[in-house]
Design goal:
The complex is a heterodimer of chains A (455) and B (332). Chain A is mostly beta strands. Chain A folds into two domains: 2-55; 64-454, Porin (Beta Barrel), CATH 2.40.160. Chain A has helices at 2-25, 30-56, 159-162, 390-393, and strands at residues 60-64, 67-72, 75-91, 100-114, 118-125, 132-143, 146-154, 183-193, 198-205, 224-231, 243-256, 268-269, 275-277, 284-301, 304-321, 324-343, 349-350, 353-354, 370-382, 402-415, 420-433, 444-454. Chain B is an alpha/beta fold. The chains are: A mainly beta (455), B alpha/beta (332).
C-alpha cells in the first residue's frame, strides 16, 4: 500500500514537474510552482495518513492462546474450544464400575457480537453418545446494567455451576451442583450495577429437575422463576477483600410429572459420577412446588481461593398407586461444600480460573508451568420423609438408596501453560444407608485424571 | 445480640486495614489544538487530586478534528470526558448515542465552556499579501489554509465567522454564501483538523494566510518563531466557546464519575484558569482574566446563538449533508 502511494506520488510529481515547466514557460513564477509542488506533496501526505487510518478500520484477524477472533468495529466473531480427556479409576469397587478413559467435554464455541446491541454464543457438545447443544443464546446488551439473554442458558442458582467448565478447580463439581438447574431454556435479565459491585440475574424458564438440563420443550406447561444477587463490595477499593463475593440465589416453580417423565432427577451423583440416590419406587412423580435457595460466597486473594455454597431444594412429590395418590410430601434435599485452593507457584487465581501462567512449561527450558493444590469437603442429605411409610408409601427404598453422601477430594492441577492443564483428583465419598438391612453402601474411592485443552 | 454487635464493630474497625487508595484512569477526548493545554492541566489536576484524596489518577488524551472525535465517541471510543471545540459536537454525542443528557450544558458554569477563544489570521512575516480583513481572503491569488468543516470544529467557527462578516457587510445570507464560496476557491488543501492545518501552513510552507484559532496562532509564533509569523486581527470575529462534559454512560460503567466530574470542575479553579490563560485560551475566571486579558487583541465578537440561532440550526444549515458547505465545495 505504502509502496503504491509512493509510486503514485513520484509519478504525479513527475507529471507536475513537466506541467509546471510548461506553465513556467507560460508565465507562472517559480514561487507559484513551488507552492503547487508543496500542495501536491501535502495532499499525498494527507492521502497516506487517510490510507493508514482506513487500514486501522479494516477487519482484524487474530489467532492467539485465546482462540480465533475476527473483529471489525463492533462486529466480532470468535472461535474457542474446550476438550477434556479423563481417566477414571475406581478403587476397591469389586469391579462393579469399569475403569475407563472418556471424553468428558468436547465443546467448540462460536460466539461474537453483531453491532453494539447483539451478541451470541453457540456451544455444541460432542462428548458422549451424540452431539447436543450446551449453550445457545442471544444477548441484547441494552446497557451493562441490563442485558436480556434468551435461549439455552446456565440457570443462575448454583455458584460452582456458574463457573466455566475449564475454570473449575476439581475434575467434577461438588455435591451442591446436583441440586441446582444445569442448563434451561428461558429468558433472563442480568447486569452489573452500583459501579459493578452488584451483579443480578432474574429469569423465567421452562424449569428443570435438580442437577439436570431442561428438556427441549416444556413437559408440564409450568414455568420456573430464578434469580440471584451477588455482591463484590470491595471490587473497586483494592486490597485483600477485592475479590470477596457474597450472594444469594433462589428459584421457584412447579414441576409436574406425567406418563413420559416423573420430572425428578434421574439420580443424584457423587463427585465420582455414580448414582447414590434415585426415587426408585413405582408411581413416584413430581407434583407441585419446587423451591431452591442457595447462599454462596467466594474469596480469592493472590494464589489463594475459597468457594462455599449451600443449596436447599424442596419438591412436592406424590406416589400414585392404581390411579390414586397414596402419599404426598415436600421432600427437602440439602447440600453444601467448602473448597479451597492454593497456587504454590504464586500466580493469581480467581473465579474465572488462572489467567496467566508466569513461567509456561518449555521443553529444555526453565519453565515448569503453574501448580495448584486443592481440597474440598461436602455433604448432600436426602429428607428422611423420602424413605418413610414402608414399601407401599415411601418414595425411595432405603435398602438401595443412600440418605446421605459425605465426600472429600484432594487434587493437584498442573497448568503447563494458559491452554493446557493436567489434573489429578482423589475422591472419597461415604454414604449413610443404601444397602440391604440399613447397612451403609461401600465408599466410592476414585482416582480421576484429566488432560484439558482450551483456547 | 452482643456478639453480633461486637462482630459488626470489629469488622467496621478492621475495614480501613483493607481499604487502599484507589487509582483511576480517565480518557479525555478533545479537539486538535488542545494538546499542550491538557498536557499541562492533566499534570496539575493529578497532583492536586492525589494531595486532596490520596487517589492516583492518570489521564490519557486523544486529539483530532472535533467532529471526527465526536463521531469516534458515538462509535464507541470510551471517553470519560469530552472537551470539544464546539457545543454542537457534544450535542451530537447526546443525541446520536444518548451517552449524556441533552441538558449537559447546564451542569457546569458558563454553559460548560471554561475558556473561550476566537478566530484570527496568521500570515507570514511582513504580511506579503497585505491581508487586513476577511475581504482579502476572497481575492484571487491569495492562498488560504483552513481545515475541513466536515471534520473540524475549528473550521466550522472559521466558516461561520466569514459568512457572518459578509452577511453584515454586503447584506444577507446569499451574500454570505457567495463570499465563502469565493474564499474556499482559494483553499488548496483541506486538513481534517486545526493542528493539521497548522502543519500545512507553518511547517510545509503552504499558503499566504491561515484562518486559525487564536490560541493556535499564538502557539505557532511561540514555537516556530515570532519573527516568522504575525497575527492579523479581523474587524469581526466569532466568540468560540469550546465546551466540556462528562460522558455519563462511560463513567458510570467504569466507576469514574467522581474523578471525571472533579477533573472538569478543576478547569474552573484558579489554577485551571491560569493554565488556560498561559496556553493562550481566554479564561472565564476573574483573576485569570485580569492577569492574561492584555495579551488578547480587542475584536468585535458575535456569538453563534445570535448570528446563526445556535449550533443545532447552524450545523443543519451549513455542515450537514447537502448543507451550504457541500453546495459550494462540491460545485468547486
Amino acid at each position: 500500500m505504502k509502496k503504491g502511494i509512493k509510486q503514485a506520488g513520484v509519478a504525479t510529481l513527475a507529471v507536475i514537474a513537466s506541467v509546471g515547466a510548461a506553465q513556467a514557460a507560460q508565465g507562472a513564477s517559480a514561487e507559484e510552482l513551488d507552492q503547487r509542488i508543496r500542495i501536491l506533496e501535502r495532499k499525498l501526505e494527507l492521502d497516506k495518513e487517510a490510507a493508514e487510518a482506513k487500514a486501522k478500520d479494516s477487519p482484524t484477524v487474530s489467532i492467539s492462546e485465546k482462540g480465533l477472533s475476527v473483529k471489525k468495529g463492533d462486529n466480532e466473531f470468535k472461535f474457542n474450544a474446550l476438550v477434556q480427556f479423563d481417566g477414571r479409576t475406581y478403587l476397591d469397587d469389586k469391579a462393579t464400575q469399569n475403569d475407563t478413559f472418556t471424553f468428558r467435554r468436547i465443546r467448540p464455541t462460536f460466539q461474537g457480537s453483531v453491532g453494539k446491541l447483539v451478541s451470541y454464543r453457540l456451544t455444541p457438545e460432542f462428548a458422549g453418545a451424540g452431539a447436543t447443544i450446551v449453550d445457545a443464546y442471544v444477548d441484547l446488551k441494552f446497557d451493562p446494567a441490563y442485558t436480556l439473554r434468551a435461549g439455552k442458558v446456565k440457570g443462575p442458582v448454583g455458584l460452582e455451576r456458574l463457573q466455566g467448565g475449564s475454570a473449575i478447580t476439581f475434575i467434577e463439581r461438588g455435591l451442591p451442583t446436583e441440586l441446582v438447574p444445569n442448563r434451561d431454556l428461558g429468558v433472563q435479565l442480568q447486569g452489573d450495577v452500583l459501579n459493578n459491585t452488584l451483579n443480578y440475574t432474574i429469569g423465567y424458564y421452562n424449569g428443570t429437575s435438580d442437577g439436570r438440563d431442561g428438556n427441549a420443550t416444556d413437559t408440564d406447561n409450568r414455568k420456573e422463576v430464578a434469580g440471584r444477587l451477588f455482591a463484590e463490595p470491595f471490587k473497586n477499593a483494592g486490597g485483600v477483600l477485592e475479590k470477596l463475593g457474597v450472594g444469594i440465589a433462589a428459584s421457584h416453580g412447579t414441576q409436574i410429572g406425567n406418563n413420559t417423565t416423573n420430572a425428578l432427577p434421574g439420580g443424584l451423583r457423587s463427585p465420582s459420577q455414580r448414582n447414590f440416590f434415585v426415587y426408585n419406587e413405582a408411581g413416584v412423580t413430581a407434583n407441585g412446588d419446587h423451591t431452591r435457595i442457595s447462599p454462596q460466597a467466594y474469596f480469592y486473594n493472590g494464589p489463594f481461593g475459597l468457594l462455599a455454597e449451600y443449596v436447599q431444594s424442596t419438591q412436592e412429590i406424590d406416589r400414585v398407586t392404581g390411579g390414586a395418590v397414596v402419599n404426598s410430601e415436600d421432600i427437602k434435599l440439602t447440600a453444601w461444600q467448602l473448597a479451597g485452593s492454593y497456587v504454590i507457584t504464586g500466580e493469581d487465581i480467581g473465579f474465572k480460573g488462572l489467567s496467566k501462567v508466569a513461567q509456561p512449561f518449555t521443553i529444555g527450558g526453565e519453565g515448569w508451568g503453574a501448580f495448584e493444590l486443592a481440597a474440598r469437603y461436602g455433604e448432600l442429605k436426602v429428607d428422611d420423609a423420602a424413605f418413610d411409610g414402608g414399601a407401599a408409601l415411601r418414595f425411595a427404598n432405603p435398602d438401595a438408596q443412600s440418605k446421605k453422601a459425605s465426600s472429600w477430594t484432594a487434587g493437584v492441577n498442573w497448568y503447563l501453560n494458559t491452554n493446557v492443564k493436567l489434573a489429578l483428583n482423589y475422591t472419597n465419598t461415604s454414604f449413610d444407608g443404601g444397602k440391604a438391612g440399613g447397612a451403609d453402601r461401600d465408599d466410592d474411592k476414585t482416582v480421576f485424571t484429566r488432560l484439558q485443552l482450551n483456547f | 445480640m452482643r456478639i453480633i454487635k461486637t462482630a459488626i464493630a470489629a469488622a467496621a474497625l478492621a475495614l480501613p486495614l483493607f481499604a487502599h487508595a484507589a487509582s483511576y484512569e480517565l480518557l479525555n477526548v478533545s479537539y486538535d489544538p488542545t494538546r499542550e493545554l491538557y498536557k499541562e492541566f492533566n499534570e496539575a489536576f493529578a497532583k492536586q487530586y492525589k494531595a486532596k484524596t490520596g487517589d492516583t489518577v492518570t489521564i490519557k488524551q486523544s486529539h483530532g478534528g472535533s467532529g471526527k472525535q465526536a463521531r469516534a465517541v458515538v462509535d464507541g471510543l470510551q471517553a470519560d470526558v469530552v472537551t470539544l471545540a464546539l457545543a454542537g459536537d457534544v450535542d451530537s454525542i447526546a443525541t446520536a448515542a444518548k451517552l449524556l443528557p441533552k441538558d449537559w450544558q447546564k451542569r457546569l458554569p458558563e454553559g460548560s465552556a471554561p475558556y473561550t477563544s476566537t478566530i484570527v489570521f496568521l500570515v507570514r512575516a511582513g504580511n506579503p499579501k497585505g491581508i487586513k480583513d476577511w475581504d482579502d481572503l476572497a481575492k484571487p491569488g491569495v492562498s488560504v489554509i483552513t481545515p475541513n468543516p466536515k471534520t473540524s470544529g475549528g473550521a466550522q467557527w472559521n466558516y461561520l465567522a466569514a459568512w457572518e462578516y459578509a452577511k453584515r457587510k454586503y447584506g444577507g445570507d446569499a451574500k454570505g454564501k457567495e463570499f465563502v464560496e469565493k474564499l474556499y476557491k482559494n483553499v488548496p488543501v483541506l486538513d481534517t483538523g486545526a493542528r493539521g492545518s497548522t502543519t500545512t501552513f507553518v511547517q510545509r510552507g503552504i499558503g499566504d494566510v491561515f484562518i486559525s484559532w487564536e490560541n493556535e496562532a499564538f502557539l505557532a509564533r511561540k514555537e516556530f518563531g515570532e519573527d516568522k509569523f504575525q497575527i492579523i486581527v479581523p474587524s469581526l470575529s466569532i466568540l468560540a466557546q469550546p465546551t466540556v462534559s462528562v460522558v455519563d454512560k462511560v463513567v458510570d460503567k467504569k466507576g469514574t464519575r467522581k474523578v471525571a466530574e472533579a477533573y472538569l470542575q478543576y478547569l474552573y479553579s484558579e489554577e485551571g484558569q491560569d493554565i488556560a490563560g498561559r496556553n493562550f485560551y481566554r479564561p472565564t475566571g476573574a483573576a485569570a482574566k485580569a492577569k492574561y486579558g492584555s495579551q488578547f487583541p480587542k475584536v468585535e465578537l458575535f456569538t453563534i446563538d445570535e448570528a446563526f440561532g445556535g449550533w443545532t440550526k447552524a450545523k443543519k444549515d451549513h455542515f450537514s449533508d447537502g448543507g451550504s458547505f457541500d453546495q459550494i465545495y462540491l460545485k468547486n
